[in-house]
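Section 5: illustrative case.
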């Protein structure tokens, strides 16, 4: 790594001169007017920043080998130009990150947008974290932008500020051309950051990144899950791979179980194909696990009916009484609240009719019944 650092930055070896920009730069078939000094300078800025932010950009290049084949196949199937692949390193660096505004995943999709395009987002599943589903949703949003805005350059910029947001700025400045806009700094830089990502990832050697070996795609096969899995870690071991490997190829699974329902009776999951199991611990038969789970649930239900869960969990506090209502605090979700009162999600829903429909919209100060 240290030798790589010197290779990219050593004035003795290479010096610091003009950064490489091709004579013709395009994005999604549109030619970028880099003959305009202002436009060229904006592109140069993003190239300099990312060339010398070496650790971040080196990981862009390496991760692109793992994810671009998958992303490209979906873009092609939806007739979205391949260059939109370069929004992903800019948005998330090929990581399932969450922004301070609540945008999630490779494509940084907000929850309302995700649900509009058919993604499942709840306590246990968040398909914004699924590279396949999120890319499909992003394609739908990009195609909508093309219908409204008419050209791909504006569509790329709108992915940062929103379609209607870009329309408003254009209308206020009496233009339909992105390059004529005076716009907020984040959006003004966004498109040129994607251009810089395209140039560097496409020609890493021209920017000092040499002999980097891209990561390989995960080896998986898709299967359909048609019954609930209450203990996902046990199920993984039973099927010959680790829970860690399963979560790596199914990052959209948010908890240690997958519960199907009438609204979600079947679910496609990825099965890891190149996952070595290092654990030698003998695994007990699944019926024993099921029996333990059923016994635990029976105990919990009995405690709920007697309003005496805390006394059972801690005999020294046998005289304490659980509250009937919980006031939601900042940062809490239904899973945490259920665990606090030793309830299952279904028991919490049974105590609060109508809560299931707004389970992802609970807020600070909201009152939730936790006992009859």
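Designed sequence:
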């Amino acid at each position: 790594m240290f030798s790589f650092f010197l290779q990219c930055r050593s004035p003795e070896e290479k010096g610091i001169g003009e950064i490489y920009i091709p004579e013709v730069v395009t994005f999604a078939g549109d030619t970028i007017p880099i003959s305009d000094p202002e436009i060229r300078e904006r592109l140069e800025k993003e190239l300099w920043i990312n060339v010398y932010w070496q650790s971040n950009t080196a990981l862009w290049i390496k991760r692109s080998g793992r994810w671009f084949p998958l992303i490209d196949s979906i873009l092609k199937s939806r007739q979205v130009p391949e260059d939109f692949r370069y929004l992903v390193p800019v948005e998330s660096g090929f990581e399932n990150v969450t922004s301070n505004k609540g945008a999630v995943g490779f494509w940084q999709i907000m929850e309302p947008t995700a649900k509009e395009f058919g993604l499942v987002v709840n306590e246990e599943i968040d398909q914004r974290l699924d590279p396949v589903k999120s890319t499909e949703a992003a394609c739908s949003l990009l195609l909508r932008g093309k219908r409204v805005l008419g050209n791909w350059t504006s569509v790329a910029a709108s992915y940062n500020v929103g379609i209607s947001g870009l329309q408003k700025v254009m209308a206020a400045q009496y233009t339909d051309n992105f390059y004529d806009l005076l716009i907020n700094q984040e959006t003004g830089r966004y498109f040129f950051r994607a251009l810089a990502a395209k140039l560097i990832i496409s020609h890493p050697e021209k920017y000092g990144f040499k002999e980097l070996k891209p990561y390989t795609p995960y080896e998986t096969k898709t299967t359909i899950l048609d019954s609930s899995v209450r203990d996902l870690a046990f199920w993984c071991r039973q099927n010959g791979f680790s829970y860690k490997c399963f979560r790596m190829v199914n990052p959209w699974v948010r908890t240690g179980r997958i519960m199907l329902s009438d609204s979600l009776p079947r679910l496609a999951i990825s099965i890891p194909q190149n996952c070595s199991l290092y654990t030698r611990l003998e695994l007990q038969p699944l019926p024993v696990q099921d029996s333990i789970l059923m016994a635990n649930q029976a105990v919990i239900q009995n405690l709920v009916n007697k309003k005496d869960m805390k006394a059972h969990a801690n005999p020294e506090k046998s005289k304490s009484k659980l509250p009937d209502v919980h006031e939601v605090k900042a940062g809490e979700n239904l899973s945490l609240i259920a665990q606090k009162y030793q309830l299952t999600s279904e028991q919490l829903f049974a105590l609060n009719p109508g809560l299931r429909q707004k389970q992802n919209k609970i807020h600070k100060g909201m009152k939730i019944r936790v006992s009859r």
